[in-house]
Structures are given as structure tokens and as C-alpha cells.
């Protein structure tokens, strides 16, 4: 895990008991996780009374350093020993390393989901609806007498933004073709997981 | 079910017995050509010169024949009903036979052409798929995230379009399950009863 000089300096301030006692450190650590993982994080986290005595510049710098550290660890899927080595380099003591690792472990999965959801991908199918109708006649053509399906795919863009549905008609044969191809896809997926 | 032929329509068709059967057959060919590709007034003028009649007369003759064929195909009337319907025109037996043959030979094609006129959504054309596993991204390393990329081809008014979509394994299985239910629905007693009774 590589951290920039700025982040390292921020972490070193966090490691300094003269700057942050253990209580303030724990408070800031939790605030950093919350601000990354909760959509509506408490923006006033740094205004906590127990942090009042710390210079706002130092507080901001340390908070940014913590957040970067957490994201970098999440991105690399750092294990405990990697994390410990890195924090030791920033002069963290045992207690602070332990606290960081515990908090990290607790939020690891949410952190991975968050990081995994960033980036571009094609439209995602989330669900399908269908309607079966029996066509009888149109103004141009009588005695049609054939089943017809209307299939609607619900789709969304990355980060769960909704997108207009995709609707199309198909005959019974076309729907059988579609299902056949999806089944082929599912079969090869199943085979791939058995390797 | 018999065809109802208006006075005007009968008048337009009354030109047919005045020409050779070969000309009627040619009119039939032109009528079908126009159904396939749209009308072309130049053809009327050429034919009118050869037959020594006004191009309007030819146009009415061809249009009358077109209407006769599309209306019968639209209603899908039986052979017998077609014969009875054209009987009122007072044509010779041979001409009636020729018209019947035109109708029977081209009914299927005309119905296909007519079916294209109905308002429709885009329709399914094809599906291609690709199985991917996402291994890493800028924001997250060491991933194993299977994804099915689908390319859905649709067609509308003869034009093809396609859309690239993606889905995860669980959703893929859900899609298959839902669409199989949709197919199965046609075999239920409810649907079979409706299909049997609507004739």
C-alpha cells in the first residue's frame, strides 16, 4: 500500500498522542468511515465537542488522510498484516492499529460494494415483465388468430439510475428462441462456475 | 362471408371483361407489384397506349383488382365465398376462375403485406450473448464478478437496431424462469379455451 507524502503526514499527526488522544482518534476514525459509506453522512462530524480542542486545519488534514487510507486499503483488498505494516510506518501504536483494523474489518464488505459500483458498464437488466395477447384482427387484416407476447425489460444505468424500459413484441417462436438462447447462456455460466 | 362491392368498385372492374384474359393476368401482376413496392403511374400510361384506352381506365381497372384482392385477403374469405362474391359482377366463368386463381395464389403474400401495416412495437430479431468475469477496476482490485453481456437485436419497420445490456447470474435465471412461465401460459386451459372458441 503506497500513500502520498501528504497522506502520510496526516496519518503521523493521528499517531501523535499529543495531537489526538485515543478517544479523539476513535471518534475521527468512525466519522471517516461514516462519511465514505453513508449516503447521508453527518456533515457536522468534525464539530463534535470532543474534537473542539484540535486545530481545524489539523483535523481536516487528518480526516482526509484517514479517508484516503481507508479507500486505498479497500481498493487493494489489503489484509491485516499489510494494513498493520503501513500504519506502523506512519508511527501508529498497537492500540490505534488494532482500532483501525477492527473498524476496517467491520466495514470491509460495504466498502467493497461501494468501490465495485464505481465505473461504467452497459445498461443492467434488473427485471422482466411480459404480457400475452391473442391477436384477432386489425383494420387491415382479419382472422389473425395468433398469440403475441409483449416483453418489457426493466433496465438501469450504473449507480442504480433508472432508464426507460425496453419493450418489444415477439411471437411464440421468437420467445422460444429468446429463452433458448438465454438458457444456453445460463448453461455456460454454470459450466464456468464448476471449473 | 361475402364481399360487399360498391357501385363504384363494380364500375371499375367492369373494364376487365373487355380485354383479353392475358391482359387481366397482367393487371393482376401489376396490382401485386404495386402492393409490394407502391404504385407507379408510368405503368398505367404504357398499358393505356397499348390497349388504346385512357390511362384512367387502366388505373381504375388495376385499382379495382387490387381492392378485390386485398379485401378478400383481409377477410380471408373461403374459395366458395370468393366465387359467390364475384358472381354478382356478371363475368364469364373463365374470368371468374382466373380471379379466383389470382386470389388463392397470392392470398398469403398479401396478408403478410397487410400485417406490416398494423401498429407494432419493435419486434424481437435475435440475441447474442457473451460471458465475462470482471477481474479488476480502477477503484477495486481482485474482483471475481461474473456478468452476462447481451446484445439484443430488434427490428421495426424493416430497420434493425440493437442494444447492449448486461445482467448478473441471478437475474439471468430469473429472466429465464419468468419467460418460461410466459410460454407455459399459452398451454393453460384458459388460453386454450379462448383460442378454441375464437374462430
Short characterization:
Chain A is of the alpha+beta class and 195 residues long. In chain A, 53% of the residues lie in helices and 17% in strands.
Please give the oligomerization state of what you see.
Answer: heterodimer
Radius of gyration of chain A over alpha carbons?
27 Å
Please report which band the strand proportion of chain B falls in: under 5%, 5-15%, 15-25%, 25-35%, 35-45% or over 45%.
Answer: 15-25%
Number of strands of chain B: 3
- State the total count of DSSP E strands of chain A: 3
Largest interface: A-B, 57 and 58 residues
Please give the structural blueprint.
The complex is a heterodimer of chains A (195) and B (199).
Chain A: H1 5-15, H2 22-37, H3 56-76, H4 80-89, H5 94-116, E1 123-135, E2 146-156, E3 162-170, H6 172-194
Antiparallel strand pairs in A: 1-2, 2-3
Chain B: H1 7-13, H2 21-37, H3 41-51, H4 55-75, H5 79-87, H6 93-115, E1 123-134, E2 145-156, E3 159-167, H7 169-185, H8 189-197
Antiparallel strand pairs in B: 1-2, 2-3
Helix pairs in contact in B: 1-4, 2-4, 2-6, 3-4, 4-6, 5-6
Protein name (chain B): COMM domain containing 2
Organism (chain B): Sarcophilus harrisii (Tasmanian devil)
Domain COMM (chain B): 123-190
What this model shows, in words?
The complex is a heterodimer of chains A (195) and B (199). Chain A is an alpha+beta fold and 195 residues long. In chain A, helix 4 crosses helix 5. Chain A contains 6 helices and 3 strands, in the order αααααβββα. Chain A has a 3-stranded antiparallel β-sheet with strand order 1-2-3. With 199 residues, chain B is α+β, with helices and mostly antiparallel strands. Chain B is 57% helix and 17% strand. In chain B, strands 1-2-3 form a 3-stranded antiparallel β-sheet. In chain B, helix 2 packs parallel to helix 6, helix 3 packs across helix 4 and helix 4 packs across helix 6. Chain B starts with 6 loop residues before the first helix and ends with a helix. Classes of the chains: A alpha+beta (195), B alpha+beta (199). At the A-B interface, helix 3, helix 5, strand 1, strand 2 and strand 3 of A face helix 6, strand 1, strand 2, strand 3 and helix 7 of B. Chain A: InterPro entries: COMM, COMMD3. Chain A: Pfam families: COMM_domain (PF07258), COMM_HN (PF21672). Chain A: This is COMM domain-containing protein 3. Chain A: Belongs to the COMM domain-containing protein 3 family. Chain B: This is COMM domain containing 2.
Amino acid at each position: 500500500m503506497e500513500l502520498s507524502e501528504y497522506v502520510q503526514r496526516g496519518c503521523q499527526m493521528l499517531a501523535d498522542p499529543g495531537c489526538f488522544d485515543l478517544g479523539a482518534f476513535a471518534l475521527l476514525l468512525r466519522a471517516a468511515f461514516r462519511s465514505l459509506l453513508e449516503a447521508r453522512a453527518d456533515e457536522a462530524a468534525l464539530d463534535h465537542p470532543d474534537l473542539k480542542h484540535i486545530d481545524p486545519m489539523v483535523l481536516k488534514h487528518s480526516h482526509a488522510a484517514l479517508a484516503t487510507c481507508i479507500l486505498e486499503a479497500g481498493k487493494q483488498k489489503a489484509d491485516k498484516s499489510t494494513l498493520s505494516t503501513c500504519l506502523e510506518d506512519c508511527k501508529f501504536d498497537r492500540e490505534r492499529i488494532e482500532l483501525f483494523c477492527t473498524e476496517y474489518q467491520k466495514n470491509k464488505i460495504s466498502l467493497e460494494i461501494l468501490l465495485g459500483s464505481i465505473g461504467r458498464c452497459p445498461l443492467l437488466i434488473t427485471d422482466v415483465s411480459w404480457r400475452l395477447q391473442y391477436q384477432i384482427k386489425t383494420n387491415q387484416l382479419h382472422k389473425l388468430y395468433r398469440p403475441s407476447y409483449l416483453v418489457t425489460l426493466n433496465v438501469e444505468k450504473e449507480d442504480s439510475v433508472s432508464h426507460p424500459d425496453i419493450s418489444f413484441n415477439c411471437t411464440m417462436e421468437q420467445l422460444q428462441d429468446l429463452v433458448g438462447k438465454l438458457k444456453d447462456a445460463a448453461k455456460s455460466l454454470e459450466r464456468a462456475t464448476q471449473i | 362471408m361475402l364481399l360487399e362491392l360498391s357501385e363504384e368498385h363494380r364500375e371499375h372492374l367492369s373494364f376487365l371483361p373487355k380485354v383479353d384474359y392475358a391482359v387481366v393476368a397482367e393487371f393482376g401482376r401489376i396490382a401485386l407489384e404495386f402492393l409490394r413496392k407502391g404504385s407507379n403511374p408510368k405503368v398505367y400510361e404504357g398499358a393505356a397506349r397499348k390497349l388504346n384506352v385512357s390511362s384512367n381506365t387502366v388505373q381504375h381497372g388495376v385499382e379495382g383488382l387490387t381492392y378485390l384482392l386485398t379485401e378478400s385477403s383481409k377477410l380471408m374469405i373461403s374459395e366458395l365465398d370468393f366465387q359467390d362474391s364475384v358472381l354478382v359482377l356478371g363475368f364469364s366463368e373463365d374470368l371468374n376462375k382466373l380471379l379466383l386463381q389470382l386470389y388463392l395464389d397470392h392470398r398469403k403474400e398479401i396478408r403478410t403485406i397487410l400485417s406490416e401495416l398494423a401498429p407494432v412495437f419493435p419486434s424481437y430479431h435475435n440475441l447474442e450473448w457473451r460471458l465475462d468475469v470482471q477481474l479488476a477496476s480502477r477503484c477495486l482490485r481482485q474482483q471475481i464478478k461474473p456478468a452476462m453481456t447481451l446484445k439484443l437485436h430488434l427490428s421495426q419497420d424493416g430497420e434493425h437496431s440493437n442494444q447492449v445490456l448486461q445482467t448478473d447470474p441471478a437475474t439471468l435465471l430469473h429472466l429465464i424462469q419468468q419467460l418460461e412461465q410466459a410460454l407455459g401460459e399459452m398451454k393453460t386451459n384458459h388460453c386454450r379455451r379462448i383460442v378454441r372458441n375464437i374462430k
